[in-house]
């Protein structure tokens, strides 16, 4: 599908404002032509000393046309910009709605700075599509046709000259601009994205670059990228000015042509001299409406390039695409069923999960253990619809996740991932991320449960939690999850950075709160798993053992060997 079809669909949803803006633009354009034509005719008439009422009528008409032009131009600007902002709002909302579920995969394909440039810059540049690409040709054609019909009533040959001028400004000049524009197509935007990428990485990696002595080298790269961007911007600006200059040249050429042809027709007796100034003024005015045509190719290619980058980022980007309507109940514990699920990361030679099937009863407690890279965390990503299975089906409460709206899954789940994000603000701000209301007493109580009673709700948290230790980050993430009311707990290494005593204290409160909920715990530590209803042992994307703690220990298989190694390590540490 053509990338700009996305914009066309968004424009259809704002068709009322678009029609009103086109109507306002046409009235403003034709009122301007008539206004200046009347002014020229008025000037010519004064030479022949017409009756006073003629001058009064013409003067009043000029004033009325001036008011009409101003009012219609205001309406055109109002409705066209309102339509543009509404279209941008729809595009942003739809793009972010499509981006969120595929975010993990996006970071595997694009650097964070480039992704930021796409989200902000490319979406923003699409505002020019309606105002600078779709709108001007419509107004130019309507105003020119009306002017040509008006002019033909006085002189057929001057009307033909207007037609030539319209073709030159609406087709020839944009075509010349387009030929030159292809040479610099997309380079400004690509260079801006490159600079944004480099700046983002330098900011994120400033400390490491400083420590390893690479900061000066990266600063030099930033300077070179900035210089290239400025150079490309200058080239693009010069090209646009060249197109505008050609348009001005054609405008004055046609106006001089009207003057010369009109003089010849007057001498030949085919045109009354009183109409010459009127026709010249009409020529000067009508071409003002075609000024935007000179820069149309540049904005068109810019919009196409931006739309292409957005559809590359989110291939299913569509402002009218329907979302699954299924929803999970927040009040019920959730059952989980995986049937023949296989998942393979893009570019990987082996699947992360291979033909995996399991069933977790509602209200049960399940632990998943296994070596790093065995596919444990991938299961949580699939359950949250952050990734899509390569094969197989996942069902929550006997409903396929394909039929469930992502938002309902997220609202029903209390999630703690290995890396939790923290925003710059206070402890209170980072706890109150959901829409639920909590009192300060509730917030302080949950901080006490996760052993963060020493923290105040007004204590500052830096971006990404830079002023918190790894253990404090995990406990704050657990506190955030414990404030939610979901009945599905998805915990990925939630206490890996905590000491044993703190871990047991935090888990005790967590298990008490999740007593009747479905809980899925991914962990490397094997202590405390006696309370789990079942334990899944994974290796290389498959479940190699399954059972309760006592059953797995009696089998003396994979889990038994892992537990034995852990006990030996603890014994060595104690020596």
TrEMBL record:
Annotated membrane topology: Multi-pass membrane protein
Assigned keywords, A-Z: ATP-binding, Cell membrane, Membrane, Nucleotide-binding, Transmembrane, Transmembrane helix, Transport
Coiled coil: none
GO MF annotation, one: ATP binding
GO cellular component, one term: plasma membrane
GO process annotations (BP): cell redox homeostasis; glutathione transmembrane transport
Cited PANTHER family: ATP-BINDING CASSETTE SUB-FAMILY B (PTHR24221), TRANSPORT ATP-BINDING PROTEIN CYDC (PTHR24221:SF653)
NCBIfam families for the chain: CydC
Name this protein carries in UniProt: Thiol reductant ABC exporter subunit CydC
